[in-house]
């Protein structure tokens, strides 16, 4: 019996080891390598091209992608430039100061703490969309992180395999078929649309009504908590203005935001 | 008799020089897991096979800006405010150390992913590192380029050289023992020309120069890139565009997975799933990314020089002006269109004529053949399956560089730079 158990354990271990360094087997067809005297394999030869090389698919897709409903474009662009400057001159210097004065474990603790608070609207919106499994997992996260993680300062839930899954009221509205509406660039908060802006207001109100861990109430007397939250939000957001290094960054951000929201709603 | 001896010496010399062969890395011992060049180009090395590099938090680094073209403050429209000064990033050691300049690839800024990676790699090995934008990038064109028409590599190298000198002047307190230079993709071609320029100007006396995946014939490279958006992609219909197709695949993939998790391993997992992209689709994606760079270059060059091909010269542009109509025009212009409509006319006007072939000869590595063959401090790392090469390009490199060329069997275009074998070789070259 013991022998058999040992054998099973060994097999399981072998399986685990095997899985760890499993080769990456792509599903794409292998690319044929052509033998040239100088060693060049001519990768483009393996592709199928449009016979006339005159297809306008790139142009068609890109022009199509530029059709985002944006009636307030002129206003939005001004706000976009305002945000860009605010980011360069105020937000990022403050975040750098924050990074300078706090050790990394404190910053992680702060991020975890606010992340845990954020799981409340995540749960609420998962419930509103009747996503059972996700609601269970987010409930699990809240319980584990609030107790074991000491009011959310640590995030043991992620280590246990309960991944954070964001749901906001904008997504809930989208789930019930509310269209995105016109694209909006919100001061300081960045890209949004009419539906998601409404969602933002709802989530904010809900959070202060639920008053989880008394944070909303304490924040009223200590507005510096809002400030810390804003700094943490910027600290954890990797987006930098100018990173796309394109004169058309506004259009690109608009497209990416719109499509990312569609993806989040549908998933 | 004497003549015979001379002949013997000559033939011996020829024989010896012919025996200096490029280093070809054997596919079986190389161990790079992605044999598909398109996948390698898009996803680069799987996370656990990458070289170990320091975290950003452990690097003493900052962004600085240089005013190189003060007149652009007044001639550029308001919404260019962010690129009227040239930014660069410097990572400093706390002791006297060598300094290495990194030049980014086509359209890429100083803080592009690959430049960031190279910074970490060299900083970890004890170098001061300066990251520079490519002369083809939007910020460099606006803030540092004299003609704002990148493509004439010699001129681009002069612009770069001025930037490097300005960096050194601004960082005069930095203790530098010696200078090194490297670049990837188009940045590697630039690095070769900068090194040549340094032989006469002697500002830096670069001790070693490494070119990673350079284009050999610039025209072949841009033709390849332009062609990549012409692949025959399955699934595109009248109602579904290419982007919609890719996004649909992503949506289905995340749905099957049950949650959205963006991380380094995502692309590999995606390619192993049922929703994976085909070779044609990946090529289209690579081509698309370069077409957007081409659009940025065409638009910016046209606007700064007031050529009126995309933006009518007297259009008032403020921060609220929609640039979408100009993007729509610029998107129709690929690299070939940019070269014929903007580079050639300017180059002809400045150099008293010349054909496309002459231009191609002048802006490609061919122009430096003798210099590269005799200059032992320059080395090249390239891949046998790089999508920007054409037949004969590797042959040119073999003949010119001899054993200073290393050819890796896989990696696509710059996909194996962060593989630990390549990273070790890069460090080893500068150390040795």
Automatic annotation (TrEMBL), chain A:
<feature type="signal peptide">
    <location>
        <begin position="1"/>
        <end position="19"/>
    </location>
</feature>
<keyword id="KW-0449">Lipoprotein</keyword>
<dbReference type="Pfam" id="PF04333">
    <property type="entry name" value="MlaA"/>
</dbReference>
<dbReference type="InterPro" id="IPR007428">
    <property type="entry name" value="MlaA"/>
</dbReference>
<comment type="similarity">
    <text>Belongs to the MlaA family.</text>
</comment>
<protein>
    <submittedName>
        <fullName>VacJ family lipoprotein</fullName>
    </submittedName>
</protein>
<keyword id="KW-0732">Signal</keyword>
From TrEMBL, chain B:
<keyword id="KW-0418">Kinase</keyword>
<dbReference type="InterPro" id="IPR029058">
    <property type="entry name" value="AB_hydrolase_fold"/>
</dbReference>
<dbReference type="InterPro" id="IPR007428">
    <property type="entry name" value="MlaA"/>
</dbReference>
<keyword id="KW-0723">Serine/threonine-protein kinase</keyword>
<keyword id="KW-0732">Signal</keyword>
<protein>
    <submittedName>
        <fullName>Serine/threonine protein kinase</fullName>
    </submittedName>
</protein>
<dbReference type="GO" id="GO:0004674">
    <property type="term" value="F:protein serine/threonine kinase activity"/>
</dbReference>
<feature type="signal peptide">
    <location>
        <begin position="1"/>
        <end position="22"/>
    </location>
</feature>
<keyword id="KW-0808">Transferase</keyword>
